[in-house]
Amino acid sequence: MKFITYKKYEGDEFDSLDMETLVNQLADFLLQSGFASELYHFSEMDGERTMDQLRQAVLDALVSGEMFSEEEVEQIREKLRNMTAEQREQLADRLMERLEQEGYISVTEPPEPSQQSKPSQGQGALGREGHAKFELTDKSLDFLGFKTLKDLMASLGKSSTGRHDTRDLATGVEASGASKTYEFGDTLNLDISGTLFKAMKREGVHVPLDLEYSDLQVHQAEYQSSCATVLMLDCSHSMILYGEDRFTPAKRVALALSHLIRTQYPGDSLSLILFHDSAEEVPLSQLARVMVGPYYTNTREGLRLAQRVLMRQRKDMRQIIMITDGKPSAITLEDGRIYKNAFGLDPLVVSQTLEEVAKCKRSGILINTFMLASDYGLVNFVQKVTELCRGKAYFTTPYTLGQYLLMDYMQRKTRTIY
Q1: Does this model's pTM top 0.85?
Q2: What's the Rg (C-alpha) of the chain?
Q3: Any idea of the CA torsion for 316, 255, 292, 360, to the nearest 10 degrees?
């Protein structure tokens, strides 16, 4: 007779590790934009990373001890020091398998698995040596966006947000203003007391009371508008120069803004445009893979593409949020060639870019610029942009970018719609 013996499972601290905590700890690695690459190795916007890189990032996160309590840190580090290199790799592989099982990453197998070495005993499929790739899933992007938004909202002292309110009033269910005489097309949210009072004022107090069309009074509610937003991210070379990574914080803000719109402003839309030597629209799901490249700054082409995207949206408000740290240094000529000049503010580039800004104003598109630099020439250029389109300019840093951007977005509630 076959017997099955059961014994108490004795797991370790790593088995109880929450995967959300691990993903949060790996956020800088998962969203990196090329700043940490050796000798600024550019990948031409290919953000694919190998499982070997992820394994090392997981081990670094464990050694840092930031995921554990103060009482556990020394014990964890001692345990890791006592492990062999193979045991540490097996531990990282175990955690990577859990990340895949819980839907935080998806793994792309090597193109020729027959040439890869077989996993050692005790390792899963993710423990193979080779060049297997991983990508972030929508679940990871949503979680990172939520965490970033939560941190930013906490720093703003806000606990919740509503929809975009305006100074205009409209008839609706949620009454918040004085009643008005009913007009054709209004929501028939009848102000009964106001209607009766107006009728009695006209005819006197008697029963039955004859109501006329002009006696009808309806409640007014705050008019809530919808907004179409294009987020323009500069991914030129300067975004990782001068010893500072400016692009990764911009990616974090884009994720937070996407989560905010999806959860609090369901009537709004958000599109993402990257501008460099040219410009391209990128799905938000691919944001984590985007990296800075050896590019110039073609602001004009980004604005032209943003206008085409916004013209497809039937919204009350249309706006462009532009995040950049450099002056425009390229334009696309009529014959398709790209004219580049990185030295100073080129008159041709500046004039063509400002002409595109003027077109945005004529189309009713607001441009708000978030400048991650404060050079005199750049300040002068941004001031001209804001004067032309009546937008705003924020001269901020990668550390305060998210706070300023979210505050500006939510303050759209004070804008009057014409």
Answers
A1: no
A2: 28
A3: 10
Spatial separation of the C-alpha atoms in residues 149 and 88, rounded to whole Å: 34
Alpha carbons 141 and 289: distance in angstroms, whole number: 11
Residue 393 has what DSSP assignment? E
Across residues 260-268, what is the average pLDDT? 81
- The band of 390, judged by pLDDT with boundaries at 50, 70 and 90, is confident
Burial class (CB in 10 A: 0-12, 13-18, 19+), 15: exposed
Quickly tell me which residue has 């014994």 as its tokens. 7
Helix (H, G, I), strand (E, B), or coil: what is residue 3?
coil
Q: At 34, is the pLDDT very low, low, confident or very high (cuts 50, 70, 90)?
A: low
- Determine the straight-line distance between the first and last CA of the chain, rounded to whole angstroms: 84
Q: How many Å apart are CA 226 and CA 270, to the nearest integer?
A: 11
Q: Where are the beta strands (DSSP E) in 1-114?
A: 49-50, 105-108
pLDDT bucket at 406, cuts 50 / 70 / 90: confident
Q: Which amino acid is at 209?
A: L
**Relative orientation angle of helices 247-264 and 138-156, to the nearest 10 degrees:** 90
Supply φ then ψ for residue 134, to 5 degrees.
Answer: -135, 155
Mention every residue, 6+ apart, whose C-beta is less than 8 A from residue 417: 166, 168, 223, 225, 316, 317
Enter the DSSP assignment of 92: H
Mean per-residue pLDDT of the chain: 77
Residue 302 CB contacts under 8 Å (≥ 6 apart), including other chains: 232, 273, 274, 275, 279, 322
Q: What are phi and psi of 373, to 5 degrees?
A: -160, 165
b/e sequence 282-302, b meaning 16+ C-beta within 10 Å? bebeebbbbbbbebbbbbbbb
Q: Which DSSP string corresponds to 204-250?
A: -S-SSPPP-GGG-EEEEEEEE--EEEEEEEE-SGGGG-TT---HHHH
Asked if the peptide bond before residue 208 counts as cis, ω within 30 degrees of 0, the response is: yes
* Whether the Cβ atoms of residue 49 and residue 289 lie closer than 8 Å to each other: no
**Complete domains list, the chain, with CATH:** 19-136 (no CATH), 145-162+225-414 (3.40.50.410), 167-224 (no CATH)
Cα separation, 409 vs 270, whole angstroms: 12
Residue for token pair 């901020």: 396
| Mean pLDDT confidence for 83-89 | 88
